[in-house]
Amino acid sequence: MSKVALITGITGQDGSYLAELLLEKGYEVHGIIRRHSTIATDRIDHLVEDASLKDRFFLHFGDLTDSSNLAMLIMKIKPEEVYNLGAQSHVAVSFEVPEYTAEATGVGTIRILEAIRQSGLDIRFYQASTSELFGGLPDTAPQSERTPFYPKSPYGAAKLYSYWITVNYRESYNMYACNGILFNHESPRRGEIFVTRKITMAVASIMAGKQETLALGNMDAKRDWGFAGDYIEGMWRMLQQEEPRDYVLATNETHTVREFVELSFAEVGIEIEWKGSGEDEKGYDKKTGRLLVEVDSRYFRPAEVELLWGDATKAETELGWERKVSFRKLVEMMVDEDMKTIAGMSSEEYKTIQV
Length: 355
Ligand code: NDP
Ligand code: GDR
Known about the structure:
Elements: E1 4-8, H1 13-24, E2 28-33, H2 45-48, E3 57-61, H3 67-77, E4 81-84, H4 91-96, H5 98-119, E5 124-130, H6 154-173, E6 177-182, E7 185-186, H7 195-207, E8 214-216, E9 222-223, E10 226-227, H8 228-238, E11 247-249, E12 255-256, H9 257-266, E13 272-275, E14 282-285, E15 291-295, H10 313-319, H11 327-343, H12 347-354
Parallel strand pairs: 1-2, 1-4, 2-3, 4-5, 5-6, 6-11, 7-10, 8-15
Antiparallel strand pairs: 9-12, 13-14, 14-15
Helix pairs in contact: 1-8, 3-5, 5-6, 7-9, 7-11
The chain binds NADPH dihydro-nicotinamide-adenine-dinucleotide phosphate (NDP) and guanosine-5'-diphosphate-rhamnose.
The site of NADPH dihydro-nicotinamide-adenine-dinucleotide phosphate has 25 residues, from helix 1 and strand 5.
């Protein structure tokens, strides 16, 4: 008998990779999708269209803001594992829609935990917690499971509630419930308005002559960026242990947004020369002098998390988890994919025709 899993947020970056991993492992996979005015299942269309999966892959309409729907789905699907990845997950957007972010990203978690508890079923639960919980306390890096929390956004505050309610349900009801405290993880499937994908798409669009410049906010922010595919494996491992525990997943490295920009342009053979500082900082093609990067204060946040740098020792030791894709390889993979899609050629081919 194959195991049955339910994924909220299956149409997102992580949900799509997790669905693939669980299907590879022989699971029957169910996912909750929301109704949109246009179909928004691009990241999982290959699974929907795969005839060999028709008895093992199912999508259901639902929403983390609708308790009755969640309760009905838990009773109908009877999953053994639930991965709660659904969220309004954009930090800057959470300042624009704070109340909705609280509903989906915060209260949504208690709705699904309650649906599980009231079902009386033996279900293992994974909560997509985040390094945004650490936020703004100075001198805490590298951050681990023992680092105090101090969220700096409505998104972070909503995730803080979800973190603690997950711990509370574990302790109160003896549920197998875990928090994965994941640092930033990216991929060619990353949403287009997160900074890494915005950068790699801009590089490809500029090379293809479809965009003039790349406008960014705070380029001094530091993040611990890994590859989403590696992190999905860690989520699954957290639900396969004897005891439920909370784990940080991170690469143990940190880099600035500026470094991500430099490496991305380097992939297509361009060296960036920086001039000016603060809001007047600009990046030029060192060889031709062409303006490529500028700062736009519209992308500054009301409060910023300046430094995230994780310590994943516990996951490495207890789960045998390791990140496999390096920072450089991640940038290379993302630029290359966007070059193929947007410019119609790989980064290497592009460099060859430039010399
Ligand atoms: P995405 O933004 O790519 O995906 C979010 C998913 O949540 C989408 O499937 C979206 O559906 C769904 N969703 C949004 N609102 C609701 C709702 N009200 N009800 C049900 N589903 C909803 O996020 P990622 O894949 O990058 O991240 C997955 C999870 O991990 C998120 O909870 C995120 O906050 C968290 N996280 C992510 C990290 C990262 O670096 N990627 C790091 C740490 C935590 P739709 O397609 O319909 O919009
Ligand atoms: P983050 O990711 O806020 O860390 O949240 P994001 O890629 O949005 O920002 C990273 C850093 O880059 C700076 N930045 C910009 N960000 C965006 N989006 N657009 C810009 O133009 C820009 N310019 C500079 C930001 O200020 C920030 O410092 C992600 C999400 O996936 C969360 O759901 C998850 O919980 C955390 O990672 C860990």
